[in-house]
Amino acid sequence: RDHQLVFQRRREQVMRLTTLSACNLNQWAMDFEGNLRRVKESIARTRKASGRYRCGPELEITGYGCEDHFLEMDTFEHAWEALAELIVEGFTDDLLVDVGMPVYHRGASFNCRVVCHNRKVVLIRPKQILADDGNYREPRWFRPWPANRALESFILPQIVAKIDGQATCPIGDAIIQCNDASIAFETCEELFAIEPTSIRYYLSGVDIISNGSGSHHNLRKLNNRVELLRSATTKSGGCYLYSNQIGCDGGRLYYDGSAMVMMNGDCFAQAKQFSISDEVEVVTALVDLDEVESYRVARASSAAQAARGSYQIDRISVDFNICSDKSGSLSASQRTTLPKAIRYHTPEQEIAFGPASWLWDYLRRSGMNGFFLPLSGGADSSSTAAIVGCMCQLVVDACIEGNSGVLEDIRRVVMDPNYTPVDPRELAGRFFHTSFMSFKNHSSASTTELSRTLADQVGAYHINLDIFKAFEAIVDTFSAAFPDAKRPTFKAYGGSVAENLALQNIQARTRMVLAYLFAQLSLWARGTRGGLLVLGSANVDEGLRGYLTKYDCSAADINPIGGISKADLRRFLTWASKPKAEGGLGYPCLIDVVRAPPSAELEPITDSYTQTDEEDMGMTYDELTQYGRLRKLAHAGPVSMFRKLCHVWDHLTPEKVAEKVRTMARLFYVFFFLFLFC
Question: How far is the C-alpha of 357 from the C-alpha of 204, rounded, in Å?
């Protein structure tokens, strides 16, 4: 039948032109009403662009981050209710629509693509390879569909069955065979697998593969994603659609969009990677599927593999022309889409735009009215402040461009229905509060001035606050309980290590208590109402080392730099210090932050001693970054770490390397135990 269709096309000299749509959707866990509204909008935009097939993100109906709500049957019921509404309202009429949702079948839950056409469910395609590493725990909620499991009959829920009298539909691994082209389906992790399912499909002659994904942002992850897409379509030839969520989905992760249409190794459409302005972004491409056949027939080795017929995959016939029925003569409006270069951000831009977009998404949906940041003038808190400043710039740019959704959100945040932001600094002054919490004889003049200057450059509402009296009151309370003991004092004044550490921790925890007080009452004190989210500023390296105080400012509501190393933050700050005309954020004082030696400033500054982080930790930040990469990325334990670092740190003796690794391992495991079990 396939050959007959090809010969018929050749006789009629018809090009196989089709318009395909992929999308970024800003979905939210368990927001069925909002999620469905955005799905509908993406389908409407596909239709407006004359699209014939629409692919959506993974689990778009429920939101990807529902976690243990996927163990509740209510979640499945609501998902089917949403799908039924799509069908009843005609969103699948004369269009092939592919949505992501959970499906319960014969005693197990599956993460599925549900393909609909003309008010029928034509296929439920369960995910075969689940994500179960890093931030992903899909096997907790779903089961993988075995590749060799036969196609089965799925009994549709009554809410769907009664629409058009369809009682069952196929579930399993199958190819949709339209009248003029074939489509197969992947879900997220299957693209990253050692043996991706796309190879089986392409060698079976499939023209189009779609991938609905829920992929979060990592530095340079887009590069890896594009390499995989390019590799799949270059080796075998074919068209590949990639859709993804964008936004924070109510959790700690930021999903970075970048929906794409690729064919034969080239990119024909690409959506934004970071955005605060588009809850729905649909990218379309008008492609000629005959180019897939031409590409394949010219590659003898892949054609030979296809000729073996090694993969016997069921095909489901759908009476639908996915390609245009027009002749090869095209009007100007019907020109096929030309290949384009992939848009990449630099790592420094990713650090700015990713967390900034995540912060905006979290803020606008949280019901809160801004942020409060203890701003010390150091690299970490300055990075957080710069990211909020970047967010303000993005919000203003979106409002100037006329984005009504962003304008409505910012008016709700600042509680002014008539407000229209035009200046990022003025906007920051309305909802971004910072405070330098100084301590007598500990806080240096340079960090005090850097904190004030950065707050001014960003536009934050800034307060200089002396916490010495609060500290003294706490120490007085302790001394009153032990009148016979001497008053605790710092090591610089003759105190013991235990006294010195306890007094440092009092300062840190006092800052946390005051941060939450000011977050709750700052807006009230300024004559308005609402509350602020407390921002943290602890980098990933210090978390690995355990170089922080439990329940200090690391115990914030959200921490936008918690997954970023000190080395990456320094590069980010250097970039952010550049003028906007040179591609930076325009905060010049940040270069002075980079040059200053990192210090917690929790001990007294004397003529002979100034506390520094690297001296306190017993290692440099560069060394700490090496530990972190080996621990996190290379999954190296202490012995493997020692062996690798002996070659990297060839300026040190093996004994010295062993001492450093032993110290790091001991501190990491102690920190891990305390935070997990205490």
Answer: 41
- CB within 8 Å of 56: residues ≥ 6 apart: 23, 25, 39, 42, 98, 99, 100, 212, 243
With DSSP H G I counted as helix, E B as strand and the rest as coil, what are the percentages for the chain, rounded to 5?
A: 45, 20, 35
- Quick one: CA torsion of 470, 476, 477, 483, rounded to 10 degrees? 170
Torsion of CA 383, 384, 388, 391, to 10 degrees: 70
Could you tell me whether strands 371-374 and 432-438 are parallel, antiparallel, or unpaired per DSSP bridges? parallel
Judged against a pLDDT cut of 60, whether residue 6 lies above it is answered with no
3-state class of 617 per DSSP? Answer: helix
CB atoms within 10 A of CB 438: 18
The verdict on whether 614 is a catalytic residue reads: no
Our answer to whether residue 499 is catalytic in this structure is: no
Q: Which of 441, 431, 446 is nearest to 531 (CA)?
A: 431
- Residue 494: other Cβ atoms inside 10 A: 9
- Would you call 373 helix, strand, or coil by DSSP? strand
Residues 258 and 356: their CA atoms lie apart, in Å, by: 17
Whole-structure pTM over 0.85, yes or no? yes
376 is catalytic: yes
Bridging pattern class, strands 108-117 and 120-126 = antiparallel
Is 645 in a helix, a strand, or coil? helix
- Please give the share of the chain, as a percent, with pLDDT higher than 70: 95
Strand-strand pairing, 260-263 and 239-247: antiparallel
DSSP assignment of 416-466 equals -TT-----HHHHHHHHEEEEEEE-TTTS-HHHHHHHHHHHHHHT-EEEEEE
**Mean local confidence (pLDDT), 120-138:** 95
Residue linked to tokens 């035009």: 422
Q: What percent of the chain has pLDDT over 90?
A: 73
Report the 3 state secondary structure along 48-108: HCCCCEEECCCCCCCCHHHHHHHHCHHHHHHHHHHHHHHHHCCCCCCCEEEEEEEEEECCE
The question of whether 58 is a catalytic residue gets the answer yes
Average pLDDT, the chain: 91
Please pick, among 258, 376, 382, 435, the residue that the annotation labels catalytic.
376
Structure tokens at 583: 């591609």
Contact 587, 426 (CB under 8 A): no
Determine the Cα angle at 177 with ends 233 and 321, to 5°: 95
Examine the pLDDT at 11 and tell me if it is beyond 50: no
Instruction: Provide the token pair at 191.
Output: 């693209």
* H or E element at residue 571: helix 566-576
Residue with tokens 């014939």: 52
List, in sequence order, every residue forming a beta bridge with 183; answer none if it has no partner: 176, 208
Answer positive or negative: Cα dihedral of 553, 555, 558, 564. Answer: positive
pLDDT at 619: 78
Q: 23, 42, 58, 537: which one is catalytic?
A: 58
Contacts of residue 513, defined as CB under 8 A and 6 or more positions apart, other chains included, come to none
Are the CB atoms for 427 and 399 separated by under 8 Å?
A: no
| Catalytic residue, candidates 23, 112, 188, 239 | 188
Q: Is residue 175 classed exposed, middle or buried when 0-12, 13-18 and 19+ CB atoms within 10 A define those classes?
A: buried
Q: What is the mean pLDDT of residues 424-452?
A: 92
Q: Please name the residue that has the structure tokens 């700050």.
A: 573
Residue 291 tokens read as: 């180019």
Q: Is 345 helix (H, G, I), strand (E, B) or coil?
A: coil
pLDDT at 4: 56
Q: How confident is the model at residue 2 (pLDDT cuts 50, 70, 90)?
A: low
Active site residue: 21, 23, 127, 565, which one?
127
pLDDT bin (cut points 50, 70, 90) of residue 130 is: very high
